[in-house]
Amino acid sequence: MSRISDTFSDLERSSECAFIAYIMAGDPDPSLTPTIAKAIAQYADIIELGIPFSDPIADGPTIQAASERALRAGMTPQQTFEIIANIRKETDIPLVVMGYYNPILHFGIERFMKKLAECGGDGLIIPDLPVEEADDVVRYAKENGINTIFLVAPTTPEDRIGKICACSSGFVYLVSLLGVTGVRDAISGGVKTLIRNVVEKRPDIPPAVGFGISKPEHVRKIIADGAKGVIVGSAIVRLIAEYKDEPERMIAALEGFCAELKAATWKK
Length: 268
Fold this sequence. Notes:
By secondary structure, the chain is an alpha/beta fold. The protein is about 50% helix and about 15% strand. The chain has a 9-stranded parallel β-sheet with strand order 5-4-3-2-1-9-8-7-6. β6, α8 and β7 form a beta-alpha-beta unit.
């Protein structure tokens, strides 16, 4: 069992769903990321940490801007590992890295997985890596105890959902809508069907839904549709951007917002 699997099992026993919080490593400054993570870890069950990249094709304007701020601050994959190690000193919360394939390939897939394991990382999401081309990633991740988390979109064909589920560990990431990440007013009505399709293919792995989730009512709807986890990114990153020059107010705002989201994951 991994830290991620253990977390989902513990939450199931206590009638909760996982609140997975996304932040960008190095935004607005690398020295502040561990403090942000520690604050969020009081309420989140898993933290997803983005590696900044110059061409984040799956991300909308909010996370693109966070990536640009982090890159201007000098962030690199190596610094991301150092940040993860610093976060790990403060908390045992599962840490999932979300990174695009080009920097990982340049770093070296095997070397990347070893570094991620050594610094205390638990999982990896590569949104632009097709499952059909992921054999090396899955192999080296498994050798180093890293969960590989693949994405299922509303347009993913049935047979491909099976392939994605077979290669996923920890949880499966369900994209709630077409397009890129970003805050939305409403959640797509097709999420329930998507969750059911994934559960039919792989009932032993939790489905977690992301993209567009930004309110407690979104969280409650996703959970009512059958999800075992909800992923919130842009709404959190937007708060970080709003208070990027006022760290104390930022931390207070993040704690309040994350407390509301976590409360919405408790099953009645």
